[in-house]
Records
---
Amino acid sequence: MKAIAVIPGKPNSAHLVETPRPTLHAGTVLVKVIRVGVDGTDREINEGLYGAAPAGADFLVLGHESFGRVVEVGPGVKKVRPGDYVVATVRRPDDCINCRAGEYDMCIAGNYTERGIKGRHGYLSEFYVEAPTYLVNVPPTLKEVGVLLEPLSIVEKGIMQAYKIQERLVWKPQRALVLGAGTVGLMATIVLRLRGLEVFTMARTPKPNRHADLVEATGARYLSSREQPVLGLDETYGRFDIIFEATGYSPLAFEAMEVFGNNGVLILSSVTGGDRHVEIPADKLNLEMVLGNKVVVGTVNANRRYFERGVVDMQRAEERWPGLLGRFITHRVQGLENYEEMIRLLNHEKSAIKIVVELGAGAQETTAKR
Ligand code: BGC
Ligand code: ZN
């Protein structure tokens, strides 16, 4: 079968490979891939900055945002059936205390693997085989947007954990600030709106633009950082109970610390591989954190609990704002053969929100209907 692979560590090495179709064993599931989303992590892997091939392999099949359909199940599999739509989780445990407890997104040792990222082939291939415990069922009503579930799971994790941490007090968050209006920032906007908060979502480009339209469709306010910096936002709008940082620009994490309120939670989700230095008002920030019982929490990866919550929120979002999630998918690459187009879009298409690769029959079925 065909797959899109890279040679980890080698810049711009994306290419098409022909690899054997994975074989089904007892207790595993064969999935036909329908579409796969790509993101900044895939771009970094293709730039040679990140990623690792499976042990013994000299290439890594890319792709960690999957959506597919079960073709066949091995003996002993009961949780999923042929015909089911599924999304696979990304991380696979090693054997630290958290991994052994099923909390492998909280791995302490760091020897975990991640499909399409670190030590395991990903989903940008015609088929994959996986154990049902890593497959999350998606109802057919969500088949056009199920590919967004993996990035949504990261958001769900950050927000569910903020609420979990705040069980330590009486917490009724009212106002949220989302920094960034890429896929993750937009998802955070949706999830926070579903939880009933007043949401302000800030990105660089002034209105009008596609991102602003999507933000406003949820009833949130769109702010441009060119027109108004983060510092001072609290004076205009009041302090924020939740801030979700998803810009990829680390200095904003520290600016955000200056505008969140007492008992506030700042959720950081940007994976920043650079080496940026900034000067910060350390005494002031420290004092406010202490006197205000503030929390800063990082979030990356997600286990199946957060994927399952994502399915529920996707259904709620579709009911409340029909068709909105589908508008996140701004670019479709037809077929694995067009990997160069995928890379070009990833590297240069500034207007893109979610870029997906459409595979085979599933893809035609989708395009025909639009
Ligand atoms: C993925 C996560 C993963 C992280 C770091 C992200 O793009 O969504 O699942 O843990 O990259 O490898
Ligand atoms: Zn671990």
Note: The pocket of beta-D-glucopyranose (ligand 1) is lined by residues 39, 41, 64, 90-91, 114, 117, 150, 154, 271, 300-301 (CB under 6 Å).
---
Amino acid sequence: MTETPVLHDRRDGYSVITLNRPDKLNAFNEEQHAALREALASSGSDKECRAILLTGAGRGFCAGQDLGDRDPALLGDSPDLGRTIETFYNPLIRQIRSTDKPVICAVNGVAAGAGANIALSCDIVLAARSAKFIQAFAKIGLVPDSGGTWWLTRLLGEARAKALAMTAAPLSAEGAAAWGLIWRAVDDDRLMDEAEALALSLARGPTHTIGLIKKAVQAASDNTLDQQLDLERELQREAGRSGDYREGVSAFLEKRPANFTGR
Ligand code: LHQ
């Protein structure tokens, strides 16, 4: 077992968080959950950190739950997996969705089970061309969790959602990008360069406004158009009072690059 289940690297304006149990394809045990939550929380509260990049060590991104830790043979007659979900996975997904900093996921290899759905909960997902997304749950008699049924249905529609979830068929990175499940598939050897360039550009962007954009887009699918128009009005009011709006317009009028401070 690796000593540090999550690596947390602070870079120039952003942080890189790496799931680090490569021998298990970064499958989650409780230590890895705690370390990831802690790394996300500390990036969230760090004023110098304006974007978060999540990836995996080794050849996989994440194979979901470490099944050795949830082996029914060891759990007794009436295991309560709902408790695992409520204690570990749901808070993690809520944390990723509610941090106002953009979370980029660089899917470096297979993303299976909850690992696929943790990737899909991030704001911008890049995947190595060799990576695959697998809703592996049905293969072990479980239903997709960590928002899987929500992401698949919202992003792909019922037909594809049901087929992927019921068959556990792997979906290639290119297929995921073509279907609109992720942002882009990139060549394997370019993945981290592209992901880091994206993190850096977001870190140098109007961070507060990017948080407002995240809030608006996430609210859109639950809102009517009228509600969304009202929300946009409120968020634009807030963005219009930011220093970055002032700077963005000055830079445009002066034909120079904007120097955003994130406030
Ligand atoms: C693993 C795992 C793994 C342990 C690979 N655990 N060791 C929530 C609530 C509570 C309980 C249940 O779960 C959940 C949420 C979930 O995530 S359920 C879904 C759990 N995940 C899976 O069912 C995926 C299981 N893994 C696989 O199907 C394959 O490993 C994939 C398709 C991901 C990759 O296949 P390969 O590239 O052929 O790699 P491999 O199978 O040879 O795995 C490499 C090693 O990693 C191997 O160990 P070994 O000692 O033999 O080298 C695997 O045993 C280990 N590993 N996933 N989830």
Note: The mean pLDDT is 97.
